[in-house]
Write a structure and sequence with these properties.
The chain is α+β, with helices and mostly antiparallel strands and about 120 residues long. About 45% of the residues lie in helices and about 35% in strands. It starts with a helix and ends with a strand.
C-alpha cells in the first residue's frame, strides 16, 4: 500500500511539473526585463541579442545602434505577459523616459515568439 501511495505521489508531482513547463510566461517575462535592463545600461549590443533571428535578418546591429538614443530610457518594468498561443506572447510594460525635461511614463506592448527553443522579441 505504501508503495502505491508513493508512486501516486510521484506521478502527481511530475504531472504538475509538466503543466508548468508548458507555460512560458515566466521565461518571457525574465527575458523581456533582461532586454530592458540592458537598454537602461546603454548595452545596445546586449539588447539587440534579444531580437528574433528574423528581426536581426532585416536589421543589422549597426542600424539598430543608430536608432537607439542612449540614456533616453530611465526605467522599465514588465507588468504582465499573456500567451495566446504556445509560440507567441504579448508583453505589457511601463517605460519611463525623459521628454522635454520631464520624466514621463508610457505603456508599451511587445510581441515575443518562441523559435529554436528560446523566446525572442519581434521588431515591429
Amino acid at each position: 500500500m505504501k508503495r502505491i501511495g508513493a508512486v501516486t505521489g510521484v506521478l502527481v508531482v511530475l504531472a504538475g511539473c509538466a503543466g508548468l513547463a508548458g507555460k512560458p510566461e515566466e521565461r518571457v517575462k525574465e527575458r523581456a526585463q533582461a532586454r530592458w535592463d540592458a537598454l537602461l545600461k546603454d548595452d545596445v549590443k546586449g539588447a539587440y541579442a534579444y531580437f528574433s533571428p528574423g528581426s536581426r535578418a532585416v536589421m543589422d546591429l549597426k542600424s539598430y545602434e543608430a536608432s537607439v538614443r542612449k540614456g533616453f530610457w530611465k526605467a522599465a518594468t514588465v507588468d504582465g505577459v499573456s500567451c495566446p498561443t504556445a509560440q507567441r506572447c504579448e508583453v505589457t510594460e511601463t517605460i519611463e523616459y525623459e521628454f522635454n525635461g520631464r520624466r514621463t511614463r508610457s505603456p508599451l506592448t511587445e510581441t515575443w515568439i518562441e523559435e529554436g527553443g528560446n523566446w525572442w522579441l519581434v521588431r515591429k
